[in-house]
Design a protein that fits this description.
The structure is a homodimer. The first copy, chain A, has about 400 residues and is an alpha/beta fold. Chain A folds into two domains: about 170 residues, Rossmann fold; about 200 residues, Dehydroquinate synthase-like, alpha domain, CATH 1.20.1090. Helices cover about 45% and strands about 10% of the residues of chain A. Chain A has a six-stranded parallel sheet, sandwiched between helices. In chain A, strands 7-8 form a two-stranded antiparallel sheet. In chain A, strand 5, helix 5 and strand 6 form a beta-alpha-beta unit. Chain A starts with a strand and ends with a helix. The relative contact order of chain A is 0.11.
């Protein structure tokens, strides 16, 4: 097991009716900017309910809507201008991963005094942490279980054809409200995407090589098994509270940090997936569902022990040669995604062989030339991964 | 799944050589009181290493040794006097659960301005949280993996024949150093006790009734399975880093909060065990190892579904009638404890049938008359539990 530091100060406030807790959680007398997305929170009444509670206790409430899926730098900078002008001292994101990630960027960029006028450069620091001293404190009200952004300090922001990750320790939400009932009205495809997103987050921390971390392995398998168990159920019965509650909590814990401590992850599926989203506007989870099976097949030698363990413990595959068991585990994964209505081939995204050069050029531009747990996934290997899922 | 709030701001700094991080973790120029136990930290050199690092960066270092197993109120009050007199502003516990729990009491009692001269009353608030505004901030250096105190806000303190739990949200350690190598020199029986303590902590949060929390169930099972896997290994090879590292992390996560969110626990084994320790000076874990099998047998109807699930998932028991499978799961648990050299009968603690009246009187005195997940464990039921393990 590798050395690690685990720190996660976000308060998760989980369950029915927890929206009322906002009055206790948001600082009194604060100037609060509520951020949201394309309008579903407005249409289904969640935004009004949030505003009603936050408006208590002497707070000034401002709002900023229109944060798009794969939030755009140019959009977010409009919110940064509001924060600076109105001296906002608390941000409240109401939405899914895009709104939460976008709000994290607003929180950092608003305080990046050395970067005024060149805030886009904050996105180039990636996982090296943006050079800010602090961020505007933020909370979230989660309406889409998927990205886990509600309980980590990471975000991914788009700037034209660049889709870039960044992080800063000051970006852990102070609190996140996780009320499963707020997700009952989501369209089926967004719920399916959330299941896939969480599943892939777990596999990217798990599917590397054995690292003498049996507890982390089993906790990762716990999330995978639970998603397999409750995923189809919550799609079929969106108003079943318990199944949806498990999905919400699985999505949060998939990227809250605990399953990844002491082990080396392989985020290559996300890195390639980001290029598909940036270039072809594929939904984030849909791009992951395509790249992951390719990664599993092309990298099966490097990931052999963990693929066998995954097959046995998660899918009960114990018959056949190593190769047969690994292939069976990959097929099970594909069938699971397909059963949720999520495709596992590039053609499902409308991407063809002629697009590969463009994807490769973007990967190179973003420095993604030595991916994977061993740093040995060259551009050539990434190309073979995509060719395996044409 | 029940509503819950999960919040755990402790920074876990895990791995080889992490003691050096103390200089970054303890506030500069602070007056620091280092607390420790019976002297093993002094003898094996850990205390000196800690002092060397903490003495940097303009800090004033004081020390307070002699905190006993099952820390005594009267001992701890001597440290409270030092904290008040020397205006200590950071506490650093170097030890196991007793030192950490004792230090938490020092941290709270030192700030309980309304209770000066009657600090013992703080122990009567139990899990209702002691009425303090704040506590002296504290960190820990863990030398014994067992209680999980390093990453929660609970503590248990003895005052003569009373052994009482208390808690306060301000008592989460700011940080905890978890270096598995610091535990290599522990006596075998203390390592065995730690394995049992962690195992029972998990079962008390898990072995109740199904509560539509499949992820919490599986995460609990993950810790149990890992303890079964690495427990005997780390006893046999105390210097095997990876096995010991897994034990340390299992013990922490067993009582860090996550496996208990959204479900109702049953802490009756601990509550009865505390009386055995208070009256007969039984080591904490040894008392739990006796009470738990009695609880499993006497309460097998109330805990039927979870006992069957535990047997199947943790021990692979799938053959036989429900009753046979439950009995097999209990026997497996007893055999596991016995294999670690830990007894599972009252006679192993030197306690006999004639002592039962005294135990019952203490349980009644401490209000433990409606224990368990359903509150239906009367004194009569607790007596039957103890009679089942004479």
């Amino acid at each position: 097991m590798l050395n690690f530091t685990f720190f996660n100060p976000t308060k998760a406030v989980f369950g029915k009716g927890q929206l009322q807790e906002l009055d206790n959680l948001v600082p009194e007398k604060a100037t609060v900017l509520i951020t949201y997305g394309g309008g579903s929170a407005k249409r289904n009444g969640v935004l009004d309910r949030v505003k009603d509670v936050v408006a208590k206790s002497g707070r000034t409430v401002l709002e900023f809507g229109g944060i798009e899926a794969n939030p755009e730098f140019s959009t977010l900078m409009k919110a940064v201008a509001i924060v600076r002008e109105k001296k906002v001292d608390f941000l409240l994101a109401v939405g899914g991963g895009s709104v939460m990630d976008g709000t994290k960027f607003i929180a950092s960029a608003s305080c990046a005094d050395n970067f005024v006028g060149k805030e886009a450069e904050l996105l180039t620091f990636g996982f090296g942490a943006v050079p800010v001293e602090r961020s505007i404190p933020l909370g979230t009200v989660v309406t889409l279980p998927a990205t886990g952004s509600e309980m980590n300090c990471f975000a991914v922001i788009s700037n034209g054809e660049d889709k870039l990750p960044f992080m800063h320790p000051s970006l852990f939400p102070v609190f996140s409200i996780l009320d499963p009932e707020l997700t009952f009205t989501l369209p089926e495809n967004q719920v399916a995407n959330g299941i896939v997103d969480a599943f892939v987050h777990v596999l990217e921390q798990y599917l590397t090589y054995p690292q003498a971390a049996p507890l982390q392995d089993r906790m990762a398998e716990s999330i995978l098994q639970t998603l397999i168990e409750i995923g189809p159920e919550t799609l079929a019965k969106p108003q079943d509270y318990d199944a949806r509650a498990s999905l919400v909590w699985c999505a949060t814990l998939a990227l809250q940090g605990l399953i990844g401590v002491g082990v080396v992850p392989d985020w290559s599926t996300h890195m390639i997936g980001h290029e598909l989203t940036a270039l072809f506007r594929s939904a984030h989870a849909r791009s992951l569902a395509v790249v992951l099976p390719g990664t599993m097949r092309v990298r099966k030698e490097q990931k052999k022990e963990k693929l066998l363990q995954y097959g046995e413990r998660v899918w009960g595959i114990v018959e056949g040669s190593d190769d047969e068991r690994i292939e069976a585990a990959i097929v099970k994964t594909e069938e699971f995604f397909n059963s949720l209505g999520v495709g596992t081939r590039l053609k499902d995204l409308g991407v063809t062989e002629t697009d590969l050069d463009k994807i490769m050029a973007n990967l190179e531009k973003h420095g993604m030339t030595a991916l994977s747990e061993r740093g040995d996934q060259t551009l050539d290997v990434s190309r073979r991964i995509l060719e395996a899922v044409l």
